[in-house]
Design goal:
Two copies of one chain form a homodimer. The first copy, chain A, is an alpha+beta fold. The first copy, chain A, is 44% helix and 18% strand. Chain A starts with 11 loop residues before the first helix and ends with a helix. Bound molecules: zinc ion (4 copies). Chain A binds a DNA duplex through helix 4. Chains A, B: Fe cation binds at residue 103.
Chain lengths: 159, 159
DNA sequence: ACATCACATGTTATGATATAACGTTCGAGG
DNA sequence: CCTCGAACGTTATATCATAACATGTGATGT
């Protein structure tokens, strides 16, 4: 079941493309795209869904890339820190960014039944939130938006 | 340090008012506003900040209201489920809703330095997120917005 | 070549958050 | 009364994340 976007699609090229882009960007910014980091990003791209850290770790362990939690958390810290991966707070899970490199406010649509996640595009909210923040003197540095509901498939089943 | 709203204020009346309102609503909706549930809400109102479940539990335990995690998690489930309290995903923490009863999309401003939290008002996003969801057939049931940044006090200190 | 330094990794242990499961209590409604 | 469901008490365990410290490794300057 492919989840992101809630649509079936062949994404073998997404993976190759995204990895190549990440590699290039790391080169440009002198970041070390080490085997563990690369493999974690690959796994998230392959699975194309939100995954828990320990779920990723199992795969790494099976491949001999490390079996202790810090291995995967370090890789995730790097990937999240540089915008290759997003953390989904509601789920304590991680998912590959669907448009890395672009400066964006990630917004997620999370199905409460099948746990599928889609990353939607949003604009930086110039509305009430920004206004409220400005009025109180709060400086917003980062916004996350997470919506819960039913994906098309589950909505149909439930109906 | 009072955090919500990032302003000092006397809120003894907020507490009494909020508790009375909760009591009334529970009566109207035949919900059981039990001692543990009431006390947890009171604690969150008194402290007027985001608190971890175990932090709340310590207070309950000191007062003889229970010492095991399920005690506080059950109370929080009830309070969150009925909108008296919000869970802040980024922090694994809980805070009393500042305008319970009203149907609203909570949005939080979270200071990354002092961890103060303000609940801002937002409107249900009729913008791109809603549009993107509608296009894919996703049914949004609930949205949370969490912004990280610097509160007025910390912004000043940092500057 | 060698020292040095920054960064990444290996490993052990522990901390922090949350829930499963099961038996008991207690009050509302028949 | 009796029954039922909701809340509660208790034990144990699951799940998520980080601290701390030792080790390796490659770039840089001398
Ligand atoms: Zn993204
Ligand atoms: Zn679904
Ligand atoms: Zn609220
Ligand atoms: Zn602050």
């Amino acid at each position: 079941m492919d989840s992101i976007g809630f649509q079936q699609h062949d994404h073998s090229h997404c993976i190759a493309e995204a990895i190549a882009a990440a590699e290039e960007r790391c080169k440009a910014e002198k970041l070390q795209f080490t085997p563990a980091r690369r493999r974690v990003l690959e796994i998230l791209l392959e699975q194309h869904r939100a995954m828990g850290a320990y779920e990723i770790l199992e795969i790494l362990a099976a491949e001999g890339l490390g079996s202790q939690p810090p291995v995967v958390y370090r890789a995730l810290d790097f990937l999240v820190g540089h915008g290759f991966v997003h953390r989904i707070e509601r789920m304590n899970a991680y998912t590959a960014c669907t448009h890395p490199g672009e400066d964006h406010v990630p917004a997620f649509l999370i199905c409460r039944l099948c746990k599928a996640v889609a990353e939607a595009e949003t604009v930086l909210d110039g509305g009430r939130l920004g206004k409220a923040a400005h009025e109180t003197g709060f400086v917003i540095e980062k916004i996350v938006v997470e919506a819960e509901g039913l994906c098309p498939a589950c909505a149909e089943t439930a109906a």
